[in-house]
Amino acid sequence: MFDRIKEDIAGVFERDPAARTRFEVLTTYPGIHAVLAHRATHWLWVRNLKWPARVLSNVARLFTGIEIHPGAVIGRRVFIDHGMGVVIGETAVIGDDCTLYHGVTLGGTSWQKGRRHPTLGRDVVVGAGAKVLGPIPIGDGARIGSNAVVVKAVPPGATVVGIPGRVIECEQDADRRRRADTAARIGFDAYGATRDAPDPVANAINRLLDHIHHMDSRLEAMSQALERRGIMQHFDHDADLDAGVIDSPSAADGLDPGAPDAPDRGATPPA
Ligand SMILES: CC(C)(COP(=O)(O)OP(=O)(O)OC[C@H]1O[C@@H](n2cnc3c(N)ncnc32)[C@H](O)[C@@H]1OP(=O)(O)O)[C@@H](O)C(=O)NCCC(=O)NCCS
Fold this sequence. Notes:
Bound molecules: coenzyme A
Largest sheet: 6 strands, mixed
Number of strands: 15
Helix content: 25-40%
Strand order of the largest sheet: 3-6-9-12-14-15
CATH superfamily of the largest domain: Hexapeptide repeat proteins
Structural class: alpha/beta
Radius of gyration: 25 Å
């Protein structure tokens, strides 16, 4: 038991830069308290002591703001950061080394008995406010962005954002990212957020803008050719219309093709 507590605390140090001392973590982290209480409630639950398990789980919720059903299965070194508002349903399974932030729901979408909550693989990060709904598998190493609503299975290593959740990053990209920086040392991205994860909606709009700029430049060339042949007067291109670019989170870093200095978009069309 003490070994498990030690590794729980070690997990906090790996994943929370604000953690200072073991004593502080043990006494002030509601996520730690909730996981410890869940071990006791789950022990009671599987021995058919259902009512005491539910009562103890409610007491733990009162103190921590984290509701974990005693029937849920939680792996080793699972860390619930901040914690308030987390709800974990009866048939949820959480693999080793997963991290959940406040406001996360691992919930069901049906009132049928039986399996109705998600199964998280190992090393999954679920961002603040995210909802993972239904008996869906979330693959090892997946990242779920803050406030995402995930209703479909997520492959290993993928990053999912939005409502409903969409995969924006595949396993190879995630591997590259893991190797790239601090994550390589600790295998963890705080809050499941990546600097180079573009907003998919902004990306789609920027592709449309690219297309429009491309057509625009061809029309410009045609208009000038017609003027040279004396067929019609050339109309000057309206430069004000070139400025439109939708910023994605990483545009400021120049990582996104939608960044203002990207080669094609927003440039005055060639004469
Ligand atoms: C919205 C909801 C009622 C829809 O249920 P449903 O009718 O069975 O819908 P389906 O699962 O068939 O999904 C239909 C479509 O809606 C999308 N969808 C489902 N739930 C969604 C949600 N919460 N937000 C956004 N899109 C959602 C699905 O992706 C699917 O899209 P697609 O047709 O493009 O593939 C249900 O998913 C939901 O969110 N229930 C609330 C569950 C909850 O709060 N549980 C907490 C327990 S603690």
